[in-house]
TrEMBL record:
Extent of the signal sequence: none
Protein name: Zinc finger protein 382-like isoform X2
Membrane-crossing segments per the record: none
One GO biological process term: regulation of DNA-templated transcription
InterPro entries: KRAB, KRAB_dom_sf, Krueppel_C2H2_ZnF
Source species, domain of life: Eukaryota
Source organism (scientific name): Camelus ferus (Wild bactrian camel)
All residue ranges annotated as the KRAB domain in the record: 6-77
């Protein structure tokens, strides 16, 4: 059985502001760790992409919220909307 390639979009999760606010600090830390680890795995196997803003923000411990979703457009994945 052939499996298609995986994109960074396939391994990302975004939350509504309400969903994000319901997470406790341990859950938010787990999210941060998993997203950064996923990005590192993609880079380590040769996936070439500009570092997404959300990864920069996670690395710097900055707030992810700018609008109604953590990621207001799919452009953070290198896609046009």
């Amino acid at each position: 059985m052939s499996q298609g390639s995986v994109s960074f979009k396939d391994v990302t999760v975004d939350f509504t502001q309400e969903e994000w606010q319901q997470l406790d600090s341990a859950q938010k830390a787990l999210y941060r760790d998993v997203m950064l680890e996923n990005y590192c795995h993609f880079v380590s196997v040769g996936f070439h992409m500009t570092k997404p803003d959300m990864i920069r923000k996670l690395e710097q411990g900055k707030e992810l919220w700018t609008t109604g979703r953590i990621f207001p457009s799919r452009s953070y994945l290198g896609e046009s909307v």
